[in-house]
Amino acid sequence: MLENTSQLSSLQKSPGDSTYKRHKPEETDLYKIIEQNLPIFQSHLSNADISLPAFVHNEFRSYLRCGMLKHGFLRVKCDGCRFEHLVAFSCKLRGFCPSCGARRMVETSAHLIDHVIPVVPVRQWVLSFPWPLRLLFARQPNTLSRCLAIIIRAIETDLINRAGLTRASGAQTGIVTLVQRFGSALNLNIHLHMIALDGVYTVGKSGKAKFHSVKAPNQTELRTLLNRVIQRVVRRLEKEGLLIPDPEQPWLDLDFHEPMDTVSAASIRYRIAIGPHSGSRTLTLQDPLFIRTDKPVKASTANRDGFSLNTAVSCQPYQRDRLERLCRYVTRPAICLERLTVRTDGKIQYELKNPFRNGTTHILFSPLDFLSKLAALVPLPRHNLVRYHGVFAPNSRMRKHIIPKRSRRVKRKEVIKTDKTFEDATSQDELMAPLSWAQRLKRVFNIDITLCPICGGTMRVITDITDPDIIQKILDHLEPQPPPRKRVAAIQSQNRL
């Protein structure tokens, strides 16, 4: 039942306090912006003959319900002091919701660390595409999947060759690809984060897997690999009729007929999508102190024709904490609420994590343009953003030799009920058992949702409430109240003894 908890990204806690406190989404700037401007945004779209898909409208509607007690909640009670509080349901969508995005970040990163990536050297490969391909891949995710298979095979071949082996030897590597759709300025930016093993596996006659590590690729090797990737991707797009060959400059055959084309293209090019200033550049704030004129060439980066390949980040086998932070980074939500503010003139200001080369530190949006940026970030339904390749693939014969399995003797219900944390686990069965949502909260954010803030006892889910009439009655008349002071003092004195 605890899997229904919400509002993870902005859970509030005081120093030294690990108890859960409900985040109020209706008090955030993001919620207020969407709630106040969504009807106006829909009206402008109708006037411009732009109809957003149903899944985008559902994203906005569901976000306005996410974390709101009036739309359903869980009743959680302490067995000791009878203290109660309510836990609101979440939307569980993949677009721009910060809390659900943070929850997915925690779940994915914990799964990768505990059940996918073995204890071997790991390197991150980041591949960025030119602007036209970003629009193409946003419109046609199946095309991205086919190009991704080409990219993965090129990287696998490169690792096998640098390990001094061949594909005929049966050598394989493992890669987890995370398709990231956003940039630091809330722009639509389709790029790939690939967490790859820094080496390859082979299986000997004994049936045991052996890992062969490789050195970091130099710039010459990166350039060669990037050229190979570009050639194969271009050849594939030409074969599908999407890329028209030209002696001077190839060009994509894209017709803007889909409802999201205008919104997506404007988001990619840092343009305003709708309104009286449609097509103009997005307003920015610049600081001369951050202007960078030099452009150092990094040995871990290769660039050509709008493509960029970077391999600067790596993790050694003993750096599992660093690897988990990396997994959280590549699976993070699109919006950071701490960097979002509403100015006195009504403009929405979003702070960049790292200033641009021209000194840009903040991006300014009108409310309508901001909503169009959010709409462009919503992925298509049933489009998987996490892909497993090589030995990590579900159908890989080598997977059973690489990926540790959870013991069948451990029952899921028994694991969820235990109060042990990840660090307190003593057996291999406990380490490989699936973590409950409460355990993941405690592991990542040091927040224990099962801990009573009054007496320190165990909080237990009583029931879930979804009936609107009952919800309203509970919110009106059964507001959770702390137990009497005398009872709390008695419980605390008993705990001291």
List keywords for this structure.
single chain, 497 residues, alpha+beta, 15 helices, 20% strand
**Main sheet makeup:** 7 strands, antiparallel
Low-confidence residue ranges: 1-16, 407-432
- Radius of gyration using CA atoms only: 25 Å
Quantity of strands, as a count: 18
Assess the beta-strand content as a share of residues.
Answer: 15-25%
What percentage of residues falls in helices of 4 or more residues?
Answer: 25-40%
Distance between the termini: 33 Å
Report the mean per-residue pLDDT as an integer.
80
Q: Please, how many helices? A: 15
> Outline, from the CA principal axes?
globular
Structural classification: alpha+beta
Structure description:
β11 and β12 (307-310) form a beta hairpin. Among the domains are: 98-280 and 295-336 and 374-399, no CATH class; 408-437, no CATH class. Helices cover 35% and strands 20% of the residues. The protein contains 15 helices and 18 strands. It is of the alpha+beta class. The two termini are 33 Å apart.
